[in-house]
Design a protein that fits this description.
single chain; MetI-like fold; flat
């Protein structure tokens, strides 16, 4: 127990990094998901094919493989491009940036299907009625589409968020000093790997429990006035 107390500051610091990675990744994933859903639902064949290829390829590659590929290969590709164009000399992608962009890129594919399915669940008659009543496209989106889009997307979004939160553990292989990295270092230093990995497990459970409370609050907020079956 004394060893856990001694390493607690570094464990909590790693937990904060894990939370930052998760939050930044989910923001990127939502943006890519909305863009991908627009591509799949648009009448443009190019956008449709690009969005389809994005979701197909990303969902068919293991997360760890894609993370390592983007971290090492992506950095090399950027530097080769800079050398060929002369726009920059050398760029170094740090572990935090690589982790955020990789996880956001991966889960953007899942969010694409989440938002696409949610949009298709909105009754078309409501949108047509809003347009017929003289609402502008912006007003139709903010008053009719968006509230229902969030409500229909929340169950799948919640699952994606919880999986994304756990996926942040993979960033430790890049050397980022997040929760799993700090737990591993502490466990190896004290020869108590089980103890510190168990501490990490409990912290992930706490983060999951807090997330569940937040998701339930969002569900109540966007389901106000909706009759439950």
């Amino acid at each position: 127990m004394d060893d856990v107390v001694a390493y607690l500051p570094s464990i909590l610091g790693g937990t904060w990094i894990t939370i930052l990675v998760a939050l930044c990744s989910v923001v990127l994933a939502v943006l890519l998901g909305l863009l991908g859903a627009w591509g799949k639902l648009s009448g443009s064949k190019v956008a449709n094919k690009v969005a389809g290829a994005y979701t197909t390829v990303v969902r068919g590659i293991p997360d760890l493989v894609l993370m390592l590929l983007l971290f090492y290969g992506g950095q090399q590709l950027l530097n080769d491009l800079g050398e060929a164009t002369g726009w920059w000399t050398y760029l170094e992608i740090n572990q935090f940036t690589a982790g955020v962009f990789t996880i956001g890129f991966i889960f953007g594919a899942y969010m694409t299907e989440t938002f696409r399915g949610a949009y298709m669940a909105i009754p078309r008659g409501q949108v047509e009625a809003a347009v017929a009543s003289g609402m502008s496209p912006k007003l139709v989106f903010t008053r009719v589409v968006w509230p229902q889009l969030v409500r229909y997307a929340l169950p799948s979004f919640g699952n994606n968020w919880l999986v994304l939160l756990k996926t942040t553990a993979l960033v430790s292989v890049l050397g980022l000093h997040e929760l799993v990295w700090e737990a591993s270092v502490a466990g190896r230093s004290t020869r108590q790997l089980f103890t510190f990995y168990f501490v990490a497990l409990m912290i992930y459970l706490v983060l999951t429990a807090i997330s569940d409370v937040g998701l339930r609050w969002l569900d109540r907020k966007y389901s106000a006035g909706v009759r439950r079956a």
